[in-house]
Structure formats: C-alpha cells, structure tokens
Amino acid sequence: MDRLTNIAQQFAAAKPVTAVQAFGSGNINDTFLVTIADDREPHFVLQRINTHVFQQPALVMQNMRILTEHISAKLLHSPTNVERRWAVPRVLLTRDDCDHWIEPDGAYWRAISFIDGSETIDLIQDLEHGREVGYALGKFHASISDLDPDRFADTLPGFHITPAYLAAYHQVLPTTEVTIDRSVEHCLNFVRERQEWARVLEDAKSAGKLPLRLIHGDPKVNNVLICTTTQRGIGIIDLDTVKPGLIHYDIGDCLRSGCNPLGEETQEWERVQFDTQMCRAILQGYLSQASGFLTEDDYAYLFDGIRLIAFELGLRFFTDYLAGNVYFKVKYPTHNLDRALVQFQLTASIEAQELEIRSIIEELRA
What we know:
6-stranded antiparallel β-sheet, Aminoglycoside 3'-phosphotransferase, Chain: A, domain 2, 45% helix, alpha+beta, Phosphorylase Kinase, domain 1, 2 domains, globular
C-alpha cells in the first residue's frame, strides 16, 4: 500500500481505498480526491494542511468543526428547498475518532466529504454567475451570523489588518535595494497619498461602529461551489481561513476579485477597470441573503471596504517586491511589482466611480 493510500485509509473506515488522485487548483494545501468502495459516497477529499501558513492546524480543524456542524444542524432543521440546495462539507474522522492524521514526519492530514454534482469555476463567466457568487457569500454570512466569533480561534493573526501591512511596508522601505524607476515611483506616491485613510475600517471597528463577526477570509470566485445541473451557487469551500473579522473584508475581496475582467495577473495594468455592472450583480446576489443582519453602519462602510481591500492587496504585493519577493511566489523578478500596479489601478478605478458604486449600494438596499 503506497503512502497516500495508507493515509486515505485512515479516514475511510472499513471501505477499501481504490484510488487517490490530485484534485483542484489550490496553492496552499495539497489536495487529493479519494475513491473508495462505497456506492453511497464513493469519494472524499484528502488534504495535507500547509503548516507553514497555518501554524496551528488543530485550531483550524476546531474552527472548521464548529462552523460545519452549526450549518449542518441548521440545514437539518430547515425546510427543504427543492429549487436550490445548500451544501457544506463534513469533517471526516479517523478510525480513532480524530479529525486529523499526523505522519511521523509531522505532516498534518485531514479529510472532508465530497459534494457531488458541483464544480468550481476560476473566472466569473457573466452577470448571472456574478449574482450566484454574491448569493453564495451572502448565504454563507447569513448562515453563520448567529455564531459567537469568540468561539473561534484567530488562525491568521493580522490578516486583513491594513494598518499592520502599512507598518510592515514602512519597515521594509528604508532597507530596499530595488531601483526607483517610474513604476516604483508611481507605487510609492500611490501609497503615500492614501496611508492616512488606510485605517478607515479598523477605526470604525475601534469606535464600535463595525462589529467583529465570522468571515470566510478568502471568498474568491473559485471557492464558490456551482451546481453542475442548475448553475446556481450551492456552497462555499476552503474554510481554513474562517476567523473573526469584519464582513467588509469578505465583501471587498469578493468584489475586488470578481469585478476586474483583466484579472490579477495582467501586465496591461493601465487598462484595468472596476466593472460596476458586475459589482451590481454580485451585490444584488449578496444582499438578497444578507440584508437581514446588516446595520446602517455596515452599509455606510461598504464602499470603503471595496476600495480598501484592493489597495491592501496592492500594498502587500508592493511590500513583497521591495523586500525581495519573500512571501508571494513569483515567475519573474518584477512579478509582484506588476501585481501591485494592477491592484492600485483597480483602486483608482474604484475611487473614480465612487458616486456610481455608492448609488448601486443605496439602490439595492432599498
């Protein structure tokens, strides 16, 4: 029995493992689809948690179990919707009733159920797909809005805290050895002009205007499950980043990734534009599910969240470029600089369309 089959067998109960193959396009954890001799549930997902990113994997699993058990209990006691299903993966246990398996070398493995009849799509296809992405995030937020965030560990301290990223930038800047060319100068000026504003969400949180809630942490398009039959959103996966935070981080990140038709990796950064029609579609789907728990202050800071998260990611890319590309994987020396230019241009496009975006928010909340 080879290594992967032996690991998978720990989670397969008495059912023989017949195949293990690489699965998905994630770049954090190693993910495999396991096939077992079981007519009812022939597949499950096996993952090795990246302990360089998630340094306390036991807390990741604790968070995941609380979350998935909460949503599953709600689904069990709610009326069945024959037109639109909603699914959440189950954490599978080993033969010793553990939610993980640790190899002698310290590799940390877990298994979750496979949601049949679903797919993930890397890029938003059209406005209807955008609405489904927004629906899925809104449904997810609504389903966990009654969970106490104090029950959850913060497995990624500092994540999405823009002032902390700005402080890291100012630490790196005096030590950088990069050439200050036109592109670098543009980024330096862009950050300088916005650094005082970068505290907007954290200041609102400190003032008690925005409460800590549970957030997904990484609600990008390909973390939304789409039903292969109806093409509707039926769930959100990749729950490792679930943690206490501001829902504005999730909304901003979803719109940042979904409303840039050229994508994050384009080298034509000057052509990058924030697509307000897609923004409308995503927010329409989101608010159809989430409006019930949003407050006046939540709405008041939605635009700031959309603007801030694009700026924040640009700041992170630019800082990493100045530091010598030590965090994000790169394919060429200026890759992080190009990524930063894309996000800063997206931020500028959001700023230029502020009145229209705010108008969309007001229209949809009515």
